[in-house]
Design brief:
Layout (H helix, E strand, L loop, with lengths): L1 H18 L12 E3 L5 E3 L4 E10 L4 E3 L12 E5 L4 E7 L4 E5 L2 E9 L2 E10 L6 E11 L1 E2 L8 E11 L6 E3 L7 E3 L1
Parallel strand pairs: 2-12
Antiparallel strand pairs: 1-3, 3-9, 4-8, 4-11, 5-10, 6-9, 7-8, 10-12, 13-14
């Protein structure tokens, strides 16, 4: 009986101490999400666009890809691509200038709500037809009106389907040599 009372007192004391601590590690909260990305269809030796739409949680903003100060962490997406596939010409939207209560005289260039990043998927001429998986991550730093949080990443993944090359067509005009077109 005494053991049970000591154990209960210890557990209640530990519980009270834990609930009152501000330094406990918080669960990682994702402040940016990515919408599903459509499969990209591309032929060997060609390019095709890909659109990635992200959403910043209400009440938060993230630095744009070109923040107003070199001290701020830019939002950027990086990819790991399979052989015969590459990503080129990544285009970020312009951020919007906002002033915040913590620094009313300074304008920050940020993303909030939804924003879309565009890029080109490039298949080499030697790319075999079939499916590929592109993986990457969007790195960002989220802030609210009171604080900025440690940099975070959100995974970005999409499928690429390399189709068969377009067959060459041969056109013959009577009395002329054949013309080959792609």
């Amino acid at each position: 009986m005494v053991r049970a009372a000591v154990l209960l007192t210890t557990l209640l004391g530990l519980s009270s101490a834990l609930c009152g601590q501000d330094s406990l590690p918080l669960a990682k909260v994702q402040r940016v999400s990515v919408a599903p990305i459509s499969t990209v269809q591309v032929r060997p030796g060609s390019t095709a666009p890909v659109r990635m739409t992200f959403r910043v949680m209400p009440g938060f903003h993230i630095n744009s890809n070109k923040p107003s100060s070199e001290l701020l962490i830019p939002t950027a997406v990086k990819f790991e691509v399979p052989n015969d596939i590459s990503i080129g010409k990544i285009e970020y939207p312009a951020g919007k200038e906002y002033s915040f209560s913590f620094s009313p005289d300074e304008k920050l260039v940020v993303y909030s709500g939804a924003f879309t990043v565009r890029a080109l998927v490039i298949a080499t001429k030697e790319a075999p037809h079939g499916p590929f998986r592109v993986r990457g991550a969007l790195k960002y730093q989220a802030c609210d009106n009171r604080a900025c949080y440690p940099p975070a990443t959100v995974p970005v993944e999409f499928n690429v389907n390399v189709g068969k090359p377009v067959p060459k067509k041969v056109h013959k005009n009577p009395g002329q040599s054949p013309h080959i077109h792609k």
